[in-house]
Amino acid sequence: MAVKYHRLKNEKNPLLIILSGPSGVGKDAVLSRMKESGYPLYYTVTATTRPRRPGEVDGVDYLFISQEKFAEMIRNGEFLEWANVYGNLYGVPKKPVKQALASSQDVIIKVDVQGATTIKNILPQAVFIFLAPPSVEELYQRLKERKTESTAELELRLRKARQEMESLSLFDYVVVNYRDKVDLAISQIQAIITAEKCRVNQRIINPEVM
Q1: What is the phi-psi region of residue 103: left when phi exceeds 0, alpha when psi lies from -120 to 50, beta otherwise?
Q2: What CATH homologous superfamily does 16-205 map to?
Q3: Which pLDDT belongs to residue 11?
């Protein structure tokens, strides 16, 4: 039976939630399941220059744009943050995030650790959640099963994952995403959001500083 969610209270102080973690940990799967469940958040769509993978939908999974368009958006200051990740450009468009926060919607943004660091410097009042694998070995298996990287690329991603695991002090929370237990990770993220809504001293996000 589908669960219907009602918007949490304290709408005057919407949350900006940053979900980060190493490549292959399951960030997309977590957010996709949360959307399907109807959990009331504004889910940002990241722009990227990387090729579309099988099954991905433009404007839903990512905004797939050209290098030229991405460069134009950088020049115009249209990104909250952007980065070159394994040779491809990724960026979070600023305008829809500002509009959602201004309309009192809670916003969740998916970024890598580099992007989370950038946003932390701009908006330290955001809620930072690190999605972690049970182990580096498990992460390697997931990346290998994905079959989208060469052996050399797999090794590069694992080295970066180990470095990213050392950045946990940047985050407010860590959630372990076990294999075939994505609903457990989601329930923990939802518990974090509920706890944040119950804080005596609410986090105040000012969209104008973006």
Answers
A1: alpha
A2: P-loop containing nucleotide triphosphate hydrolases (3.40.50.300)
A3: 52
